[in-house]
Amino acid sequence: MTETRPPTILPEWPPASRRRAPRPVGMLTGRRSRVRRWLSWSLSMFNRAFDRVPPSRWLHRWAQRGLGFPEIEIPLRRGAPGLDGLRIAFVSDIHAGSYMDERDLCRIFAKIAARKPDVVCLGGDLINTREREILLFRRALAEVAPPLGVFAVPGNHDHFWGKDLGLWSPFLREQGVEVLTNRGVRIERDGGALWLAGVDDLTEGEPDLDQALRGARHDEPVILLSHHPDFFFEAAAVGIDLTLSGHTHGGQICVLGKAAILHSAFGYQGGHYREADSTLFVSRGVGATVLPLRIGAPAEVPIFTVRIANR
Length: 311
Prior knowledge:
By secondary structure, the chain is α/β, with parallel strands linked by helices. It has helices spanning 34-50, 54-64, 102-114, 137-141, 156-160, 168-174, 209-213, 232-237, and strands at 71-76, 87-91, 119-122, 150-152, 177-179, 183-189, 192-198, 222-225, 242-245, 254-255, 258-259, 271-275, 278-282, 303-308. The protein has one domain: Purple Acid Phosphatase, chain A, domain 2 (4-Layer Sandwich), CATH 3.60.21. It contains 8 helices and 14 strands. The longest helix is centred in the N-terminal third of the chain and has 17 residues, at 34-50.
């Protein structure tokens, strides 16, 4: 991530050549048919049964010993010098509840706070298989107080078990978290500004990039939160500077770098990807679902530091 490019101006939104993001395909991904919904529900019932087995929580905590906080510099091709050094913590796929209780969440968020981010972004799938699991975040969210705020977008689990986010969104707002479901906000620091946008989940929600970009200026960088990485297909089409995604767990269980189940139609399993002037980073996330294991895909909370190329 050392490549820099000269400043450019984003096209008008929506551009004349607007592409629509394809729906991802696969056994566990994509717009839910009755068969896919039955499969998702069946796996979740297995998850609920397995999380009652005493060793399961121990196995998950053992896997969490590998939780990393990689420091990653992100060069943006435009933006005011005041943005240089801005730190963003990206927390995705926590899947609280089944194998992770309130104490585990508090410990993780305290470690995030110790990294002193300016912004904390929650990238979806905060809950696992029960709507009430979102209530476990009350004390954990109190552990972090970044100066520029905490922001969140929903994931497929948040939708699937959240009854149209009826508890998820109001609860987060009560804790001071700004929910960016197809909307954006301006983040200002030392005279510089960027547009932080968020879209709904690609598989269970109704993402609307036009709405999320409404209000953005053409001379400021744009960072997009999208739970599903395949939305990068659409983000790159309009020159979004940086897209942060999760969903894949990095494969969660990988052998020789290969995952048994792929969650991206384009192979966005984890790490950095680039198309033209747009960058995607796919986090392996924090938690686990179905099985309390991570093999070859350690959990992570990446900490991004913004670098302005034309500083």
